[in-house]
Design goal:
By secondary structure, chain A is an alpha/beta fold. Chain A contains 19 helices and 15 strands. Chain A has two domains: 175 residues, D-Maltodextrin-Binding Protein, domain 2 (3-Layer(aba) Sandwich); 190 residues, Periplasmic binding protein-like II (D-Maltodextrin-Binding Protein, domain 2). In chain A, the strands form four sheets. In chain A, strands 1, 2, 3, 6, 13, 14 and 15 form a seven-stranded mixed β-sheet that branches. In chain A, helix 18 runs antiparallel to helix 19. Helix content of chain B is 54%, strand content 13%. Chain B folds into four domains: 82 residues, Up-down Bundle (Methane Monooxygenase Hydroxylase, Chain G, domain 1); 58 residues, MalF N-terminal region-like (Roll); 102 residues, D-maltodextrin-binding protein, MBP (Periplasmic binding protein-like II, Beta Barrel); 239 residues, MetI-like fold, CATH 1.10.3720. Chain B has 18 helices and 15 strands. The chains are: A alpha/beta, B alpha+beta. The interface between A and B is large, with 89 and 87 residues.
Chain lengths: 422, 533
């Protein structure tokens, strides 16, 4: 056969093969309208992380079945992946409900990605106001953007075999330093920082010295122009940090892993950490009690992280807005649902009725240690604060060669103001 | 007279034993190859048509155009006669280059000209409807209701409401709110469960009404009552009024007017903006910000210098160490295989793990390194020592690569050259400098350049080991060990208000231009090496 005939034959065979594959392939879409009014049951798509996948799935299905709906639960590897994927998601793959932390609310609400909620009075009564405030945002009008499900905060873990629960700050200092003196790599107060700093774990010290991060406007909203890292009262008290550094009370060289190891190997009697380490401590066979860090010059309240669920703007385009709002603002606010989601997983629920049913002693203690806690500011400007505040602590508690506390925090406040402005 | 030697007996040539790959290739040539080619081309075209249909459906015309061009090019290359033979081997690589390099670069460039960041994610229409939505507020004397949607006698949707505070029942229609007499409705648990003349919607039918319910408004004085979820309703009043003709928002209480400020927000004359904004193009705004904003520009030079120093040191030191080990282990001696295996291990372990482990080992007070050496060097807390630590750990991670490469390249140097040099009286160092190294560089130079480009953007090494810290004295955004790419990450995600993708894209383009320039110059210089071989 001539070369030309070979060529034509090949092209013809390719074209036929192409048509065969397309015929067998899952349909080529014709002009399908993007918003199909489907006669099938509406589906509510929920994004959550792997830790919570099973519980959310069982709760969502229990909610959906009697209502004749279907739910689809998609689990991301980690909570932060839910946030990063959601910020830039396209409408076709978007969720209707997401689980997340309260400090996402500012960014998501500023993007217009989540919808405000107005739950019924009966529901609101069961959820403490400060958790609802954590989920509220609004420059002029503060609105609730999510339903709180659980709260977590750090507390002071005391190894009751090595030390006594401190009555006040002076007692804690005395005990901690005496313990450190015994040598052998012992530390006074075990709190994690590391090279990058950890403003979250160091917050009890910050609030104990009467510091605040953002002041409030008259309407009660956070004011990013009022940065409190160099407020007069705090700067006056910050000289105590130099004293702690000199005595070796707090050491910024300790990072997360080291902190855990020191406490479980009994080289530390006092550890500031959160409920995620309760199991670790129990497994190490240590007898412990959890209390709030004793007041220094003001109450040493910790940061409170409130976890909850939010309804996205895509629920509107998907036609499941009322359903999603019912699930989040009504069903997930109930004591029973929060019990399943949080108490069984070692977290402290937001619902006050569910909180009464917490039987785990350690969990109850750490919930009480969070009394008066400050929710982490949820405005987008907070992104600049974490780094600088953490580094200010690292610099001033480094041990030998540490910078004095007053200039460190002043420099941090200056840097934060510059970043927020620019 | 011809002198003929005895005729050499014609020995038939030994049958050539072809290697397995050669035999496979010959087996595949001819008809099986043709069939395979037809099948693969059919699959590629089918996939292109299927993807093209989806893209056309979503009306993404540039993507459709690119797809059509690429598919036609592939078909032409593989079906048209021999003129395009080299292209047949290059096409798969070029397709991946287009898909995973050129298109992402074009997309990044496109984002760099917009203001895509926190508060500027939506389109303008979505932003307007969201602002109108969130500007609704409950007035101070707002009433909250429980809700039972129902159909009246004319099959119109109405809302049966119970005031949560007073317990009065109302019926809400699109015309307004009316009292419902007590006898007409049964209220259980705060909700209307039955009412004369109305059919209460229950179960699955309720959720089929979702859209209609969400858009339902019962006008009341000053605002409207609207459903919230499926069993509640709230009275809300707008605080902003939108004027579609002027494209402005006016705050009802104070009369302040917000106009489109051209940069993706509604702004008033005092500077106050409404949230959310929208995504829009800002031209060269981001680029001029990188050049002019002192917050960004000041650390740029310092970070750039350290990036170049870090990449150069890593590559040169790793190459030196790898080459040294390769030369040492080139001769056969006992346990040669064992040493070769051991030295490859740092390369085999995922660098994530290695970096995190090293971060622990280098801890001042609690790390193993200081304990073993008996020192208290602030490895990760002092700016200079942190730089040293990073170079050491990068050296640990990179030298096995050059070790392997050098081992291979050393084999390609003809032994006769070395022998000839020895005969001429050259010492070992001279042999190395004048014969081994230049010939080695011919093969390895492109790899050195590639390794340099890789380490120039080696985010992992910096971020996992020190996070860019320790911070500088003035606590600028860039720490003392930040390289350009980790600096970009901090600029985009931890400085200012939330996330700034547009700024990150802009700085990425700057970095791309720098790396491309350095690589191009380096490749051009290395051409002179080819004159040697």
């Amino acid at each position: 056969m001539s070369k030309r005939k070979w060529r034509v034959g090949t092209v013809a065979l390719v074209a036929t093969g192409c048509v065969v594959v397309l015929a067998a392939a899952p349909g080529v879409p014709a002009r399908v309208a993007p918003e199909t009014t489907s006669a099938t049951t509406p589906t509510v798509v929920i994004w959550t992380d792997r830790d919570r996948e099973a519980d959310i799935k069982s709760l969502a299905e229990a909610w959906a079945r009697p209502r004749g709906l279907t739910v689809q639960v998609i689990a991301k590897a980690e909570q932060n992946n839910v946030r990063s994927d959601f910020v830039t998601v396209q409408a076709a793959n978007a969720p209707d409900v997401i689980t997340g932390a309260h400090d996402w609310v500012g960014e998501l609400a500023a993007n217009g990605s989540i919808l405000p909620l107005s739950p019924r009075q009966a529901v609101l009564k069961q959820i403490p106001k400060y958790t609802r405030d954590a989920f509220s945002y609004g420059r002029t009008v503060s609105q609730l953007y999510g339903m709180p499900t659980h709260i977590e905060n750090v507390g002071l873990f005391v190894n009751t075999q090595l030390a006594k629960v401190p009555k006040n700050w002076a007692d804690l200092e005395k005990q901690a330093l005496a313990f450190k003196k015994k040598g052998g790599g012992r530390v006074a107060i075990d709190v994690q920082q590391g090279t990058g700093g950890d403003a979250y774990h160091m917050y009890p010290f910050f609030s104990g010295l009467c510091g605040y991060i953002f002041g409030k406007t008259k309407g009660g909203a956070l004011n990013p122009n009022d940065v409190g890292l160099d407020s007069k009262r705090f700067i006056r008290n910050a000289t105590l940090v130099d004293r702690w550094n000199r005595l070796g009370l707090v050491n910024s060289k300790i990072d997360g892993n080291t902190a855990s190891q020191l406490f479980t190997s009994k080289k530390a009697a006092f550890w500031i950490t959160g409920p995620w380490n309760i199991d670790t401590v129990r497994k190490a066979g240590i007898k412990f009690r959890i209390v709030q860090v004793p007041a220094i010059r003001c109450r040493s309240v910790p940061f409170v992280g409130v976890g909850g669920m939010m309804v996205t703007r895509f629920s509107r385009t998907h036609g499941v807005e009322s359903a999603a709002k019912d699930f989040v603002a009504s069903y997930m606010a109930s004591a029973a649902a929060q019990n399943t989601l949080t108490v069984k997983n070692g977290r402290y629920p937001a619902n006050t009725t569910a909180a009464k049913s917490v039987t785990d002693v350690a969990l109850r203690q750490i919930g009480q240690a969070g009394a008066g806690g400050v929710p982490m500011p949820n405005i987008p400007q907070m992104a600049s604060v974490w780094n600088d505040l953490g580094l200010a602590w690292v610099k001033s508690t480094r041990g030998a060669g540490a910078t004095k506390a007053q200039p460190s925090f002043r420099a941090a406040a200056r840097a934060i103001r510059q970043k927020i402005k620019g | 007279m011809s002198t003929t030697a005895a005729p050499t007996p014609s020995i038939p040539p030994e049958p050539v034993r072809w290697s397995l790959p050669a035999r496979l290739v010959t087996a595949f040539s001819g008809l099986p190859a043709l069939v395979l080619k037809i099948v693969l081309l059919a699959l590629v075209n089918a996939a292109a048509i299927w993807a093209g249909a989806h893209l056309a459906n979503a009306e993404k015309w540039p993507a459709v155009g690119a797809l059509v061009v690429a598919t036609v090019a592939v078909d032409v290359v593989f079906l048209v006669p021999r003129r395009t033979l080299p292209l047949k081997f290059l096409v798969p690589g070029m397709v991946f280059l287009l898909a995973f390099q050129l298109i992402p670069i074009a997309y990044t460039a496109q984002i760099a000209f917009t203001n895509y960041s926190t508060g500027h994610i939506l389109s303008k229409d979505e932003a307007i409807s969201t602002i109108r939505e969130t500007s609704l507020a409950a007035p101070p004397d707002a009433k909250a209701y429980t809700l039972a949607p129902a159909f009246d006698a004319n099959d119109e949707l109405v809302l049966l409401l119970v005031d949560e505070v007073s317990g009065n029942t109302y019926i809400g229609t699109r015309d307004g709110l009316q009292r419902l007499p007590e006898e007409g409705a049964t209220v259980e648990g705060g909700l209307v469960t039955a009412a004369a003349g109305y059919r209460i919607v229950r179960g699955a039918e309720l959720f089929a009404l979702d859209r209609e319910l969400s858009n339902y408004r019962v006008p009341v004085e000053g605002g409207a009552v609207r459903p919230e979820g499926i069993d509640g309703a709230v009275e809300l009043r707008p605080t902003l009024r939108y004027d579609a003709e002027d494209d402005t928002f006016t705050r009802i209480a104070s009369g302040r007017v917000f106009r489109d400020d051209g940069e993706g927000s509604y702004a008033a004359s005092g500077g106050e903006t409404l949230e959310p904004g929208w995504k829009t193009t800002v031209g060269w705004g981001n680029f001029s910000r990188v050049v002019n904003d002192r917050l960004i520009r000041d650390p740029f030079l310092r970070v750039f210098v350290w990036t170049v120093v870090f990449a150069t040191l890593t590559v040169l030191l790793s190459f030196a160490l790898g080459l040294l080990l390769a030369i040492t282990l080139d001769k056969k001696f006992r346990f040669q295989r064992f040493y070769r295996t051991v030295f490859v291990i740092p390369y085999a372990i995922p660098s994530f793990l290695t970096l995190l482990v090293w971060a622990g080992l280098l801890n001042d007070d609690f790390g193993v390194v200081n304990r073993v050496l008996g020192t208290s060097i602030p490895w990760l807390f002092d700016p200079w020592w942190a730089k040293v630590s990073i170079v050491i750990v990068s050296l640990w991670l990179t030298f096995p690569y050059f070790f392997l490469v050098s081992l291979g390249a050393l084999q390609s140097i003809p032994g006769e050259l070395v022998e000839a040099a020895r005969v001429d009286g050259a010492g070992p160092w001279q042999v190395f400098r004048r014969i081994t190294l230049p010939l080695l560089l011919v093969a390895v130079a492109p790899l050195l350049i590639a390794s340099f480009a890789f380490n120039f953007n080696n985010f992992n090494n910096i971020f996992l080991l020190t996070g860019g810290n320790p911070p500088t004295e003035d606590q600028s955004i860039a720490g003392s060990t930040d390289i350009l790419i980790s600096y970009t990450y901090k600029l985009a995600f931890t400085a200012g208000k939330g996330t700034d993708y547009a700024l990150a894209s802009t700085v990425s383009i700057f970095i791309f231009l720098i790396v491309a320039l350095i690589s191009a110059v380096a490749f051009w210089r290395s051409k002179s090496l080819e004159a040697l071989s």
